[in-house]
Amino acid sequence: MRKKRHITSEEIRKFSYGTNVFFNIFLALFAISCVAPFLFIVVLSLTKESDITLYGYQFWPKHWSFGAYEYLGSMGGQLMTSLGVTLFVTIVGTIINSTFVSTYAYAISRPNFHFARFFTVFALISMLFTPGMVPTYLVVTKMLNLSDNIWALILPMSFSVWNVLIMRTFFKTSVPEAIIESARMDGASEFRTFRSIVVPLAVPGIATISLFTTLGYWNDWFNALLYTSSSNIIPLQYLLVKIQNNIQILSQQAAQGGAAQIASQLPTESMQFAVVVVATLPIALTYPFFQKYFVKGMTIGGVKG
Amino acid sequence: MENSAAIEQAPVRTKKKKKSFFQKVNENKTYLLFVLPGTLFLIIFFYIPVFANIVAFQNFQYSEKGFLWSLLTSPFVGFKNFEFFFKSADFMLVLRNTVGYSLTFLLLNFFFAIFFGIVMSQLRNHRALRVYQTSMLFPYFLSWAILAYFVYAFLSTDKGIINHWITGGGGTAIDFYNAPQFWPFIIIFMGVWKGIGYNSILYFATASGIDPSYYDAAMIDGANKWQQIRNVTLPHIMPVATLMLILNIGGIFRSDFGLFYLLPRTSGTLINVTQTFDTYIYRALTTTNDIGMSTAAGLVQSVVGAALIIITNLIVRKRQPDAALF
């Protein structure tokens, strides 16, 4: 009886049936506009090179070909290097970020930490003011001497105050004070309490910030643009930026390998789209499963402290 | 929260002798160890760079004795770098573009996010809604480096699908990457399109959480759908909307670097409509290597941004205290 009442009252908010159909069509069209361009890119990466030269980019080509992927796979070269760099930076960066964010957030969420207020303000100030691109550039290149070093892609993003706020809210709301208190009564050290009791309870929160961070590292090309020049530390996203200006970068290594003839025959057009697909596919395949964590993180982050 | 913590501890502390600073440090050493890495990060990547903004008032010279030494010993030139920036022709252009695009984004994002949020909250079919939402979030998770290719596949002069249609219909191909008149629309469209899925989540969640009995009451009073949205949904969304507005007003002097730098494929002819503070600072740093002037431009951007956040927050705190940020 009660349940039925609930359903009818929820109904009240909804559109009438006619309006509902109209807005369904509207939203469906917009949703298609969000996904279709990527499918188009996938098609282009599978289009035979001669088709692109003859007819331009088409939604449905006359000839299909795996040539772009075969070349990218067999040549290895720059794409594999870049994939390796991206994976390394993303994994190491995410581990560092989520570890340090969690410890920081836990400490400032503890009522018995005497300096909690100081360190909260110390972090919050950084959200009000941006230090600017050039001063940060000077610190990384002149003070830390990290130009053209892979750590220049990791360290500038290895901590995030926004993540700290999400985790602090999470610790305060989801880890009961009583459990921490009882662990302390049992004689566990602060560190032990954190590692064996707090962290296991905070897994959903840590998953949320790790996902934000993973995405941030995977998608980062800006730090590479500022700090790298050698080709062996170009991440995938920055490789895409470089291909924009010079499509030949993909075939350069083949040419250096004494195969200049092959290099001139490379399907460079479809290859650039194949690189786009390689950079996008991991996100496209995984984000629908992690979507709820993003949504959660966003709504938690909105809670002010 | 920190306040209440201090109050809780206060009676305990008064019983014992007042502890010295070092005793407190010693008692809290595990927690201090916990905040140490983050503190080091903030010092290196926030506090030192903020201090390094003094190069905006200097003729910065790097000396072998190290960066901090160079910061302290470089000759001061007063406001010369700022003067140079304000008097250059670029300043008005950069100001116009940055603020113009930001305000447009502010209004359009605000409107579309609320519109989509409300529409989604009133949809009858839940399963379809989830598919729409997931699809709409997709572009948000992609970088501009990737999205630049999406755009290129449509706009390329000789191969792009749009020119394919135009020439197929007997028209002449448009050289989009050398036609500045189209770019304000392209940039605004892409910026809004990328963000809608994400921006609307908050309003969707808020609108879905409204107690149905308000609608019930409104209907008994004879309100139609539009009146219900105006008198029930919108007032419930306003506090969240105000908060988002404050957060975004602080960003009016900032721009999404990738959108303005990568989407036009760094085409020189488009610079008049795509140059913003951020791309200008980057180009000044990398092409002319003018550290003093580019820092000055960045400092103007940050100071105005911080001032805007503080001012809007003050206004909101007076009118609607629970929507204020701090």
Automatic annotation (TrEMBL), chain A:
SUPFAM superfamilies: MetI-like. Its main location: membrane. Keywords: Cell membrane, Membrane, Transmembrane, Transmembrane helix, Transport. It comes from the Bacteria. Gene3D superfamilies: MetI-like (1.10.3720.10). It is found in: Cell membrane. Belongs to the binding-protein-dependent transport system permease family. Residues 83-287 form the ABC transmembrane type-1 domain. This is Carbohydrate ABC transporter permease. The chain crosses the membrane at residues 21-46, 83-106, 118-138, 150-171, 192-218, 271-290. PANTHER family: ABC TRANSPORTER PERMEASE PROTEIN MG189-RELATED-RELATED, POLYGALACTURONAN_RHAMNOGALACTURONAN TRANSPORT SYSTEM PERMEASE PROTEIN YTCP. It is a multi-pass membrane protein.
TrEMBL record, chain B:
It is a multi-pass membrane protein. The chain crosses the membrane at residues 31-55, 67-86, 98-119, 131-155, 182-205, 234-253, 296-316. It comes from the Bacteria. Residues 95-312 form the ABC transmembrane type-1 domain. Pfam families: BPD_transp_1 (PF00528). It is found in: Cell membrane. PROSITE patterns: ABC_TM1. Keywords: Cell membrane, Membrane, Transmembrane, Transmembrane helix, Transport. The keyword Lipid metabolism does not apply. InterPro entries: MetI-like (IPR000515), MetI-like_sf (IPR035906), UgpAE/MalFG_permease (IPR050809). Its main location: membrane. Belongs to the binding-protein-dependent transport system permease family. This is ABC transporter permease. It comes from Lacticaseibacillus yichunensis. The lineage of its organism: Bacteria, Bacillati, Bacillota, Bacilli, Lactobacillales.
